[in-house]
Each structure stands twice: as structure tokens, then as C-alpha cells.
Design goal:
The chain is of the alpha/beta class. Helix content is 35%, strand content 27%. Strands 7, 8, 9, 10, 11, 12, 13, 14, 15, 16 and 17 form an eleven-stranded mixed β-sheet that branches. Strands 3-2-1-4-5-6 form a six-stranded parallel β-sheet, sandwiched between helices. 44% of the residues are buried.
């Protein structure tokens, strides 16, 4: 095998694949010094061979997987197609054929990470996925390597660029949700189906991957409680602003004595908190470890070149491992089997906005429902009292999720409650 040229098969030439192609080309002069070999993209698998692709030699393109899996000279496969199948099968076949794999695919790692990492260990090859979480921000390598001496108890972050972009535009420019989403799609931040972004599923997958790496226990996407930002209204934005806060879609993962807690939901957060200052498509991740204390990682979480930065960084690591014959050095770190705590038991503070009948005694009846369900009230604001209706905003103390749910279910049954307009957790 020629160790001076490392041949690559690239799967997918969309936002990420195109960035990877460009970045490998941009760095080609320095590869010899960086990794002692040159990288060469030998074949690129695409879905539609007829699509116009500027600056790409047509002879590189194929729509036949056999052209990559059957080529023994290809030693690294980069998966930038997305989705579960055929990506999963292709990666397993590549690993079985002794090829190392770099992927940006969080859907796949969040669901089948264990299977893929075990296959990589069995075949003594690398499987790296830095780009799968928070795009260009280094976070998987820090969790698995740089912070390996720590007992990590908390990972909190803004890990979806599309929703952070939308919320920023809603807050700063009064843009409506649809317009801001269309801009995020145009900029290449959004997933093929943006439901995954706006409903918190994309962030949920990233939190599952980070929780697994941080807490050494396999956390899968199904373990993550997710809520998106589609119900956030201009009125919620106005209240948050009035309280000197902003609204962010946060991923929260904690290792508690009762088990791992992991969820993604919009939160009202003080505007001076470092996470509140993360704007547009930027992402940020806080990690707390017992030895290091607080750390924060910040950068671009999506887009062509930031994501390519993470993918190509992984390729360089694989190439170095090949030069030194130490493939499969950093594999699966899930040597514990910590339970995932039931989400209903998790405590949160809530902001609840509702429309009620405007008459004496209403507030007392509502306060009683909260009290009956062990929900302690910290703040009450009444706005827009019209002749018949008033808007009430209630802030609660930290209460168990299921107590809050029971209280809200009871409120919905009351004739004096016309509408529960929004329920948002507070950081
Ligand atoms: P994309 O723009 O939709 O590109 C997907 C590419 O894969 C296209 O070139 C498509 O071919 C090809 N493809 C899809 N299915 C295929 C199949 N069955 N056979 C052959 N080719 C196939 O997607 P992307 O935004 O680059 O995302 C790729 C992956 O990176 C996803 O897992 C995503 O979650 C992840 N990621 C994306 C970002 C980002 O900012 N976009 C950031 C981090 C991670 P055609 O060109 O012929 O249609
Ligand atoms: N759709 C994702 C985002 C891309 O908006 O963050 C990066 O995973």
C-alpha cells in the first residue's frame, strides 16, 4: 500500500461534501508536512449524476457504491449523505473491508453509534464523527480525550444553528418564524427536512452523542426529551425582553445520582448569561468537569466550511494513525451503564402564559390549582386586561415536570381558563 498517497471515497456532495472537497484542495500543499502523505479524493458518490456541479471533474462522480467499496486503494470513506439507510449499511461494509470512516451524520451515530463503533473496533479501523455535533466546534475530541481525566457532570449547549438563527432574527429584527427559517435554509444550515431542526430533533441527536461521550454510558436519541421552537410567538419574545432575558433552544444533559437527565427545549435565559450572547448560526457548549471546572466551546455549528473543518480534521487524524499503524486508538468509551432518569422526575422552572376570564377570584382559583399540584409560584404578571379577558403570566419555582403537567391539565379543565398560550422553561 502506498503510504504517500491516501485515497478517499466521498459519499455525498451537498453542503458538507462540497466543503470537504474544497478544503482538501485548499490544504493540498501542506499535507506532506502535516501528515506525511497526500490526500486524494478518488471517487464521489452522488444520487443524481445529472446535477450541475461547478468545479468538479465529472470522472470523479459515480452513483454506484461498488465503485468505492470495491476499490481497494480507497482507505478512508467520508460519509456526508445523511439519513440512516443506506449510510449505515455502507459504513458497515466499508469498515468490514478495512476502510476507516469519517462521518458528519448525527442521526446515524445517535441511533447506531454502538453498533458502528463495535464494528470499527472489531476491524481495527477508525470511525470518527467530530462534525456530527456542533459543526465546526471541537467537542467530541475534547470530551473523549482532552477532558478524559474528569468526572463530567453537565453538558449544556446551543447545538442547532438553524433554530439559533431563527430565534436571533425573531428577537433582534422582529422577523417572523417562516421568513427566518427560509433564510437559514438558503444559508445551508438547515437539515434536508427542517422539521428536524425546528422540533429539536437534530439538537436531541447531538445531545445523545455528547451525553454518551461525557458520561461513558450509551444514550440514544429515544432517551432524549425534545421540544422545538415552533410555538414560540412574538408575544413570548416581548415578555422575555421585558424580563431582561432571551429565549434559546438549549440542550441539557446532567449526570445526577438518580441517573442521566437529557433534554432539548426552548428556555428563557438571562440576557447576560454567556449562552444568551450566542447569536445567529453560532453554537456553544458548556461542559463542567470535577477537575477542570467550567469550560465553554464556541463557534459555527453549521454550514459548508465550518463543518468541513471538522470532517477534514478527522481525516487528518485517521491519516496520521495510518502512518503510525495505530488505527482504532479512540473507540467507544461507554464502559458504564448508567440509567436515564425518567423526564417527569426532572425539576424545572416554568414561564406559563394564559388567557383567563377577567373577574374577581380568578387568580385565587388558579393559585389553588398550582398549590394542589405542588407547584410553587414565584411571579405573577397580568397584562392586557380587557373587559372580559386578561393575560396572565406565571413564573414557577423549580418543580417536577409531572407536577407541572398535572397542574396544566387541571387548568385546561377550568371554565375560567380560556387558553394556555405558552409554557416555556426558565434557565
Ligand atoms: P445535503 O446538502 O442534502 O447533501 C447530501 C448529499 O448526499 C447530496 O450530494 C446527495 O446527492 C447525496 N446523497 C444522499 N443520499 C444519497 C444516496 N442514497 N446515494 C448517493 N448519494 C446520496 O446534506 P448536507 O447538509 O451536506 O448534510 C450531510 C450530512 O452532514 C448529514 O448527515 C447532516 O446531518 C450532516 N451535517 C450537516 C451540516 C450542515 O451544516 N449542512 C453540519 C453538520 C453535519 P445529490 O447531490 O445527487 O442529491
Ligand atoms: N441543521 C443543523 C443545524 C446542521 O442547523 O445546526 C448542523 O448539524
Amino acid at each position: 500500500m502506498d503510504n504517500k498517497v491516501i485515497k478517499i471515497g466521498l459519499l455525498g456532495l451537498g453542503t458538507v461534501g462540497t466543503g470537504v472537497y474544497k478544503l482538501i484542495g485548499r490544504r493540498s500543499d501542506e499535507m506532506e508536512q502535516k501528515i506525511g502523505a497526500n490526500l486524494e479524493i478518488e471517487k464521489i458518490l452522488v444520487h443524481n449524476l445529472k446535477k450541475t456541479r461547478h468545479g468538479i471533474e465529472q470522472s470523479l462522480l459515480t452513483d454506484r457504491w461498488e465503485d468505492i467499496i470495491g476499490n481497494e486503494e480507497i482507505r478512508i470513506v467520508i460519509e456526508a449523505m445523511g439519513g440512516i439507510e443506506p449510510a449505515r449499511t455502507m459504513i458497515l461494509e466499508a469498515i468490514a473491508a478495512g476502510k476507516s470512516v469519517v462521518t458528519a451524520n448525527k442521526d446515524l451515530i445517535a441511533e447506531h453509534g454502538r453498533e458502528l463503533l463495535e464494528a470499527a473496533r472489531e476491524h481495527k479501523v477508525d470511525l470518527l464523527f467530530e462534525a456530527a455535533v456542533a459543526g465546526g466546534i471541537p467537542i467530541i475530541r475534547p470530551l473523549k480525550q482532552c477532558l478524559a481525566a474528569n468526572e463530567i457532570d453537565e453538558v449544556v449547549g446551543i447545538v442547532n444553528g438553524t433554530t439559533n438563527y431563527i430565534l436571533t432574527k425573531m428577537f433582534e429584527e422582529g422577523m417572523d418564524f417562516g421568513e427566518a427559517l427560509a433564510q437559514a435554509q438558503e444559508l445551508g444550515y438547515a437539515e434536508a427536512d427542517p422539521t428536524a431542526d425546528v422540533e429539536g430533533l437534530d439538537a436531541g441527536r447531538k445531545m445523545a452523542i455528547m451525553a454518551s461521550a461525557a458520561f461513558h454510558s450509551r444514550v440514544v436519541f429515544d432517551d432524549v426529551y425534545t421540544e422545538g421552537i415552533t410555538k414560540i410567538s412574538a408575544r413570548d419574545v416581548a415578555y422575555a425582553r421585558e424580563f431582561d432575558c432571551v429565549i434559546k433552544l438549549l440542550g441539557v444533559a446532567r449526570n445526577t445520582p438518580e441517573g442521566i437527565v437529557v433534554g432539548v427545549y426552548p428556555m428563557i435565559i438571562d440576557k447576560n448569561h454567556p449562552l444568551a450572547t450566542v447569536r445567529e448560526s453560532f453554537n456553544a457548549v458548556f461542559v463542567h468537569g470535577d477537575a477542570v471546572g467550567d469550560t465553554m466551546f464556541y463557534g459555527r455549528g453549521a454550514g459548508e466550511m465550518p463543518t468541513a473543518s471538522a470532517v477534514v480534521g478527522d481525516i487528518l487524524d485517521v491519516a496520521r494513525n495510518m502512518q503510525y499503524g495505530c488505527m482504532g486508538r479512540i473507540g467507544c468509551g461507554c464502559y458504564k451503564e448508567l440509567p436515564v432518569k425518567e423526564f417527569g422526575e426532572v425539576k424545572n422552572r416554568f414561564f406559563l402564559r394564559m388567557q383567563v376570564t377577567n373577574e374577581p377570584g380568578v387568580l385565587a382559583q388558579i393559585a389553588k390549582v398550582f398549590g394542589d399540584h405542588k407547584v410553587s409560584i414565584e411571579r405573577v404578571v397580568q397584562r392586557e386586561a380587557k373587559k372580559m379577558h386578561a393575560e396572565l403570566v406565571i413564573g414557577t419555582a423549580a418543580v417536577k415536570e409531572y407536577h407541572m403537567k398535572d397542574a396544566v391539565d387541571a387548568l385546561k379543565e377550568m371554565p375560567i381558563v380560556k387558553e394556555i398560550s405558552s409554557i416555556i422553561r426558565e434557565y
